[in-house]
Amino acid sequence: MSGVDGGARANGRKAIFITGAASGMGLETARLFAGEGWFVGGVDVNEAGLARLRDELGADNCLVQRLDVTDREAYRAALDAFAACTDGKLDLLYNNAGIGRGGPFADQPWDDVLAVVQVNFIGVLTGIHLAIPLLKATPGSLCFTTSSSSATYGMPMIAVYSATKHAVKGLTEALAIELKPYGVRVADVLPALIDTPILPEGAAASAPKAGVFRAIPPREVAETVWEAYHSDTLHWYVPRELVRLDHMATLEPERTRDEMAAGKLFATIDAEVAAATPIPIGATAG
Question: Disulfide check for 237: which of 28, 127, 145, 242 has CB 3.0–4.6 Å away?
Answer without folding.
Answer: 242
